[in-house]
Design goal:
The protein is an all-alpha fold. It has one domain. It has helices spanning 2-25, 29-44, 58-81, 84-106, 113-128, 137-163, 167-190, 192-223, 228-235, 238-248, 256-274. It is globular.
Length: 276
Amino acid sequence: MAEFAALMMIASGAIHAVVNAVLKSGDDKLASRALIDLSGGLLVLPAIFLFPAPHGAWGWLAGSLVVHAIYFLSLVRAFEVADMSASYPVMRGTAPVFAAMGSVAFLGDAITAPVAVGMGLVTTGIFASAIGRNLTWHALGWSLLTGMSVACYTVLDAGGVRNAPSPMSYIAWAFFVLGAVIGASFALYRGPQFITYARRNWRGCVAAGALGVVSYGLAMLAYSVEDLPRLAPLRESSILFALVIAVVFLGEKADRLKIAGGATIFAGVVTLLLAR
């Protein structure tokens, strides 16, 4: 199960990069975020009738909801003021380190030496790929806040899936609540602009909403069977896919640092897959 959990995290990272590329490419990122989250919430709506309510995990879910709101807002702002190839490495590079520290402190997870080495390689590679990018102090602040938010909701959701009656009960309710509360709030904030945007862009955002459910659903399933210090960096393999997407589909430039950073991330991923 531990190896299967690791593979789920890599798949989760690949899908996550696609979802963020859809968000980055939208001309109204807050409306895109609202539509993506609403779509995900509606897609899991039938599941909340199939699984028990997450008794024992409501506190974890409430905390995750608050942190996700901060995460979505900071993510939107980071993408508004910086290239994806610059902001994405910073936000995802800081996340696994903080998540590992939080999981040790609050969940009792362990960090072995090979896991620490793998995590260090992934984080180093992510930051190396961002060196020289057009990242202002303003954009750096939003990217760092996004990374810390990722770490916080990762720890909260790991606690949630482990304390709920079943992982699927927490996953279904988490996506439903996130869509119903955060997605609806963003949509109401945008007002008539959201309706106009949704009419033009609903296909891509609905697809991204479905992919988001699959991506983070896989991650939460993995959290239920394996320690976070090993898993969190594996999900950040999404940066490899994000760099390819940014260059091939968003027209951003590649250079030697990006290539070197990607190679270092790959070495870290291999180390984590082999770690015990």
